[in-house]
Prior knowledge:
Oligomer: single chain
CATH architecture of the largest domain: 3-Layer(bba) Sandwich
Number of domains: 3
Helix content: 25-40%
Strand order of the largest sheet: 1-2-3-4-5
Radius of gyration: 23 Å
Structural class: alpha/beta
Distance between the termini: 70 Å
Shape: globular
CATH class of the largest domain: Alpha Beta
Strand content: 25-35%
Amino acid sequence: xxxxxxxxxxxxxxxxxxxxxxxxxxxxxxxxxxxxxxxxxxxxxxxxxxxxxxxxxxxxxxxxxxxxxxxxxxxxxxxxxxxxxxxxxxxxxxxxxxxxxxxxxxxxxxxxxxxxxxxxxxxxxxxxxxxxxxxxxxxxxxxxxxxxxxxxxxxxxxxxxxxxxxxxxxxxxxxxxxxxxxxxxxxxxxxxxxxxxxxxxxxxxxxxxxxxxxxxxxxxxxxxxxxxxxxxxxxxxxxxxxxxxxxxxxxxxxxxxxxxxxxxxxxxxxxxxxxxxxxxxxxxxxxxxxxxxxxxxxxxxxxxxxxxxxxxxxxxxxxxxxxxxxxxxxxxxxxxxxxxxxxxxxxxxxxxxxxxxxxxxxxxxxxxxxxxxxxxxxxxxxxxxxxxxxxxxxxxxxxxxxxxxxxxxxxxxxxxxxxxxxxxxxxxxxxxxxxxxxxxxxxxxxxxxxxxxxxxxxxxxxxxx
Length: 465
């Protein structure tokens, strides 16, 4: 066996490969074990391919209304095979970029499945059928997550799909039922609706995007309904029956039931930490509710072993969160000191049509926690740029503390909000208030003016409403 590594990273997804890069930058001799391809679920079956298809679908949606902008396109023809080809090309380009970063930072990559043999030793069943053993002074567990299903329903990726199966379809469904209206469900509802599918979106809780501010969820439901998406909130799937070339889903809302037949059922009810095959007991790593237990520095219960990303559970199972958690872990391993992660400054994007982007506490959460709040709101339809772009749906909502102006949460629905939220994240990170956000000069005409105006509204001096 070769000289021990300073760090062995298990999992080459966003948390794993980014943690490995930061460790290498800090002088740690690092290895990564990845069972499939570097980039993990996010690059190959999640964030990236979904957004590639959404980009194409958004263009389709805009072209349908091009005549109102003075552009005559004729009939819009969708070449779904070409969309899929482009998606694959985007994924492969980014995959090659990650491979390059591993070479640049002299990180050794082992393609195979890892399991702990002891606290410091990791066995790897390589994809070529051979076995090897790695010794690491420290380890980072970053194996990510896997899609959940619902009791009694088996995902076969034939008629009952998870997100991976939905991304692999060769034809656009005529009809599809999506179970779960969180970010994944909302994005796929937008995608298939724009491509011409008849979509039914089902959510157990009272609003779509149920973990977000209620006003955001209700606004998205109204817009979805206007686009022709059949939204069923407060509803559950009572029975699922695969019938030849389709699926019959019995929906229940209270005492009322409804039968919906579709080509496919997409299960989008969340993800669970992926621990299968890791043999955590051999290293003594503790778990709770199926997730690895960590402290603020992402230490596990075992000295020298860390974990980051979806595998540690928590409310924010997002690629960018896993990346920052892994960076914190790597810096701790190298002896650097820094404050804990500020999860109240974490952006939560949903790339639906229209987009949703949120950060921090909802209005309901802020009040539940005892804050006296002042809410500022500004509708995009009152901004010049949104009128120019024919993208007037939505608003910016800022929840602030009444006494201090502290930014408690920002909630946006509308055009390009996944990018617009960044200034709010920086303001929160720097402990700014609505005074600074409202006082900063914003270019005109831009969509960002809605952020300034919402902050001014929280101060009682909005200008354009």
